[in-house]
Recover the amino acids of this structure.
């Protein structure tokens, strides 16, 4: 058996943080993605521009840089805003909050394109039928459009989630105690870098496999109504 | 905010950008060379041949690039065999470790892109090659690979941009690439927002140049198709 020098528990705690970070960023990213897609398909030009600027910038700069900008920048920006309201104490943005913001923004930018494609793939007749049945805009979206968008978008979102899962490792650089940082700590006390980074790699692989299984299950579930096609 | 620091340190940022471009160019070229045999082996029907490329691609696409860099840079030094070998002068240098890690990483993604492109070629063309009596090697050299090159371009351009963004991780092993340079400047000036935004702007410009170049190459390579566009399977 591989001897982890008692750091096994620490690594598992790190894995928990990694999963929490990934799930929180996923939630933020899905909301941003839907908003972004709605803005890109909107008839209001400034909204379209805003969404295009958002996706171009976020997709064009490295994820690591996004994490660093949010982590170091958010404190400065928040303090500047707070001082306008007469609050002058130090505000600290923790690595977890910064990580969720940065990874959520990144996921949202890519998800915007996935959702846009899915929204556009829904035939006009579906919209017309819903309206003909007397559904309002919100009910139509909730009952008719969203379930179908979900089915079309799932494979794309699944891929994005796998990318997100790997990007969580970047937040260790600003000090979040995830798998990667726990491995760093173990390395500095045991001087066995290969052992611990290889263990970290295996843990990420396992998380990837679990995510793939879940996504496949969700895809099957979402296309229940399509199986007899 | 005070953007005069950006003006003052802009030449240093450009120095860093040049290192980033070098890292990306070298690893993308080496990565493509490694990827081709892997893609060809991955297509094989024989499990003994496709088993290794399958595991290779799964490992490098399933783990974070950061872990891979640390495995090469810090991990290799755990073994005395490595430290006493003739490769040590290379594995000691952060620059070459980054190149090795990036090359391995991008080769796994590129192999999948190549495989998708080769498999996207219509069956009829393969049959036509067989009918005119080409050997397997001739078929690959004369028909499949040139055809795959045209199909591969859009997805390959994306991969290079992903590599450019991944290259920022070189800064974690003390390399002064664009991100590393920005962090060094910030440690001196305490102006994170200004300098990081400037670095982000430079990354954006580099990716736009890459996109423009690929659009030109694509136009040239696929000119025989007229206005027909080709669909390439999305990368995972």
């Amino acid at each position: 058996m591989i001897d982890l020098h008692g750091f096994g528990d620490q690594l598992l705690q790190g894995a928990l943080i990694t999963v929490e970070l990934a799930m929180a960023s996923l939630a933020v990213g899905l909301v941003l993605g839907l908003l972004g897609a709605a803005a890109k398909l909107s008839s209001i030009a400034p909204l379209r521009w805003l969404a295009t600027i958002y996706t171009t910038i976020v997709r064009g700069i490295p994820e690591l840089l996004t994490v660093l900008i949010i982590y170091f920048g958010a404190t400065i920006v928040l303090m500047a805003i707070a001082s306008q309201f007469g609050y002058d104490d130090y505000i600290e943005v923790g690595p977890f909050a910064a990580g969720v913001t940065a990874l959520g923004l990144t996921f949202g930018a890519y998800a915007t394109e996935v959702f846009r494609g899915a929204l556009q793939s829904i035939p006009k007749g579906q919209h017309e039928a819903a309206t003909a049945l007397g559904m309002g805009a919100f009910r139509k979206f909730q009952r008719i459009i969203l379930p179908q968008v979900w089915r079309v978008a799932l494979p794309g979102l699944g891929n994005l989630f796998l990318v997100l899962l790997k990007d969580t490792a970047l937040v260790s650089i600003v000090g979040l105690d995830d798998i990667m940082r726990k491995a760093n700590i173990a390395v500095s006390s045991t001087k066995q870098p290969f052992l611990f980074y290889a263990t970290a790699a295996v843990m990420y692989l396992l998380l990837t496999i679990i995510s793939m299984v879940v996504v496949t299950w969700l895809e099957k579930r979402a296309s229940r109504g399509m199986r007899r096609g | 905010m005070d953007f005069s620091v950006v003006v003052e340190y802009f030449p240093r940022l450009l120095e860093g950008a040049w290192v980033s471009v070098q890292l990306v160019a070298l690893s993308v070229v080496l990565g493509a060379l490694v990827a081709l045999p892997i893609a060809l082996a991955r297509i094989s029907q024989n499990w003994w041949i496709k088993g290794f490329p399958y595991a290779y691609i799964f490992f490098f696409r399933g783990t974070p690039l950061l872990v891979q860099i640390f495995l090469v840079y810090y991990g290799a030094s755990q073994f005395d065999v490595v430290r006493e070998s003739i490769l040590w002068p290379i594995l000691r240098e952060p620059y070459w470790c980054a190149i090795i890690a990036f090359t391995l990483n991008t080769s796994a993604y590129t192999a999948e892109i190549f495989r998708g492109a080769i498999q996207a070629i219509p069956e009829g063309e393969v049959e036509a090659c067989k009918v005119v009596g080409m050997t397997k090697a001739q078929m690959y050299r004369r028909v499949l690979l040139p055809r795959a090159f045209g199909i591969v371009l859009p997805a390959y351009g994306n991969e290079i941009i992903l590599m450019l963004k991944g290259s920022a991780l070189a800064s974690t092993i003390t390399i002064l690439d664009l991100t590393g340079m920005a962090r060094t400047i910030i440690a001196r000036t305490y102006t994170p927002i200004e300098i990081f935004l400037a670095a982000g702007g430079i990354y954006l410009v580099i990716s736009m140049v890459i996109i423009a170049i690929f659009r030109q190459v694509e136009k040239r390579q696929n000119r025989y198709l007229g206005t027909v566009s080709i669909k390439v399977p999305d990368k995972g």
In short: Chain B is about 80% helix and 0% strand. The two ends of chain B are 40 Å apart (CA to CA). The first helix of chain B runs from residue 4 to 43. Chain B touches chain A through 42 residues (CB under 8 Å).
